[in-house]
Amino acid sequence: MRTQVGIVGAGPAGLMLSHLLHLRGIASVVVECRSRDHVERRVRAGVLEQGSVDLLREAGLGERLAREGARHEGIELRFGGEAYRVPMTELTGRAITVYGQQEVVKDLVAARLAAGGEILFEVDDVNLHGLDSESPLVRFRHHGREVELHCDFVVGCDGSHGVSRGAVPDGVLTSYERSYPFAWLGVLAAAAPAVDELVYARHERGFALYSLRSPEISRLYLQVDPAEKLEEWPDERIWSELRRRLETVPGWTVNTGPILEKSITPMRSLVVEPMQWQRLFLAGDAVHIVPPTGAKGMNLALADVALLGEAFADWYAYGRDGLLRDYSRTALRRVWRAQHFSWWMTSMLHRLDSHDPYEQQLQLSTLRYVASSRSYATSLAENYVGLPSI
């Protein structure tokens, strides 16, 4: 097989890049080890920054998003028996939209297939070769057949456990990483949301988040110990703990219902530099991971490939390589800003491992400052909805 850009990974980053390249007349092939059903069903992030919404609309992918996405103009912080709304749109002129990552993936898959795009699902034994040459190669097996995909460039969008980052020689990449002493227990419940906007709750027993996916489906999270097992959390215990941590405002209750899915996700931060080596470019979770508190994961991935789409367009249309050479430096400015914001939100809202009373008072002081200072609330809001440029 021959294409211009070979893309490893059919998540939001890989699919969006393929779509953006198609709009610019650049051919690509996407290879994915999972099935189409799996990538379209796996529940991940659900908050789109204003810039991500704009990107999807400009790429012709905004129809279902406009119909089913829920625009939010604020978030609520709960702490110390108080509730404070951060009016994001009032403070910044921008908003977020709640629209599940799996819905973004469905829209992208449908758009690529409708345009005749090549997405090869359920591939095995993916290997990258010749990345330092002018004709890199992606080798894999598809439905029992050995395939060689020759391309001008390879883009790895296959996550932190994929093969792409490992194809870079030792000594080239530098990793910056932090693991947190807690995890998130996330549940998807058939329960009408009791909120109109996301609620972030800081509680002595641990953090909780009340989110929503539709008028009938709620998405909720609890801070737990990363060593805990799902079998230790029957539905009754989950709802009881959510009530303890969220029902701190008089007259308000959590709506309950059947729990459809639950999982425990460890919390960590990761940045790998640079995001490019020779003819290999890396994007999304392959080179950066953030704790989900700041809702930055999918948005960073989309921002990465938006840069790559422009860079490849400049290369193929005019033979200019400046944007490609600057990709890593440009992308990392946004990545590190999002890293700091995600760390800050996480540190402010979670019960810290030390149970240090001093740190607990610092958390409350920070939250009170957000609630009382327009400039501090504006800083939170502009980072949350997404900075237009860095």
User: What is the number of helical segments per DSSP (H or I, 4+ residues)?
Assistant: 11
| Overall helicity | 25-40%
Provide the low-confidence segments as ranges.
none
- Name the overall outline: globular
Average pLDDT: 95
CATH topology label of the largest domain: FAD/NAD(P)-binding domain
Under CATH at level 1, the class of the largest domain stands as Alpha Beta
**Secondary structural class:** alpha+beta
* Total of domains: 2
Order of the strands making up the biggest sheet: 6-5-14-15-16-13-17-20
Radius of gyration: 21 Å
How does the major sheet shape up? 8 strands, mixed
Oligomer: single chain
Strand composition percent: 25-35%
**Count of extended strands:** 20
End-to-end Cα distance = 38 Å
CATH homology-level superfamily of the largest domain: FAD/NAD(P)-binding domain
CATH-derived architecture of the largest domain = 3-Layer(bba) Sandwich
Protein name: p-hydroxybenzoate 3-monooxygenase
InterPro entries: FAD-bd, FAD/NAD-bd_sf, RIFMO-like
Domain FAD-binding: 2-341
Pfam family, one: FAD_binding_3
Name its key features.
8-stranded mixed beta sheet; FAD binding; about 25% strand; oxidoreductase; single chain; about 400 residues; monooxygenase; alpha+beta; FAD/NAD(P)-binding domain; 11 helices; D-Amino Acid Oxidase, Chain A, domain 2; 2 domains
